[in-house]
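Technical note accompanying the year-one report. For the benefit of new consortium partners, we illustrate the data format agreed upon in the data management plan: each record pairs a sequence with a structure-token string. No post-processing was applied to the example shown here.
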Amino acid sequence: MKIGIFGGTFDPPHLAHLILASEAYNQLDLSRVLWVLTPNPPHKGGISAASLDDRLDMLSIAIADNSVFEISRVEIDRPAPHFAADTMRMLADEFTQDELIYLMGGDSLRDLPTWERPGEFLDNCHGLGVMRRPGDTVNLSEINSTLPDIAQKINFVEAPLLEISASRIRRNIRAGKPFRYYVPDGVYNLILDRGLYLR
């Protein structure tokens, strides 16, 4: 099987996340997509706006109606720091017969040489599904000079231009602005019920 690995803080999970995962699933001919919820992202200073339990509940609601999406607890059930190199090693040990395709944005691909142990991370990826937005450019030769042979692992996923971001949703909520149609219905209701992101 080809399994997509889609990591993030999902703080909150929104429609762009779902569209990107769906496009990757379709364009890369994946069997399923594992959503890897990161409790304390190293690159964000280990800070998230909503609690892990709230984010886990929101993510569960967001993907509940799609049988090819599932949550992986590979980062939830181990202590920080949560580096992608360790996550992919653990997933490779778990899914020994499957191809693991790590899904990332073009910005993450550009930053990949600065990640913790990027070579080890790549060794455990059969491929990279890079979700490129219209007009997005990536200098592959520059990245290849740091991480040789990375180009042969890259598969570009064409995704619609979506300006939805978790940070924008959080700002809207704090400012009392609309966010109703940025997230799935169940996520919207949970945010209201629990009063998330108000401060």
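Partners are asked to follow this layout when depositing records. The chain has one domain: 2-194.
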